[in-house]
Amino acid sequence: MANFQDIKAQTGIKFFKSSGTGTDADPFIPEMATSTTPGEVTSITNFNVSVGSSSTQVLAANSSRKLLILVNDSDEAIYVSLGATATLNNGIRLNANGGALALDDPIYKGVVNAISVSGSKKIVGIEG
To answer: What's the CA gap between 80 and 18, in Å, rounded?
Structure first.
């Protein structure tokens, strides 16, 4: 489980604990402080994707992306590839049970792919 309270401030975005105790039954829910300052994220989209045992697209390219947070919500490692086909034991490893990656400035705006050993593993996150 990702502890969003640990994400104190990204460039242009701030998260505050809005509810939850941080347990699996009562997780932290991020609440974004919005602003109209150029470059700041003012809206986010939550996503969850089932990652297969072959390369799976997590997110399409997005030229407006300013923030990307990926969290492994499964019991085994997931490998993330930015812009290429995902392969096991290559790219960015998100460890089981909450391994996370946060990207902001400069942000990668291309396609995001992932792969897991046994398939049907969940990756969750936000894009803004």
So the answer is: 29
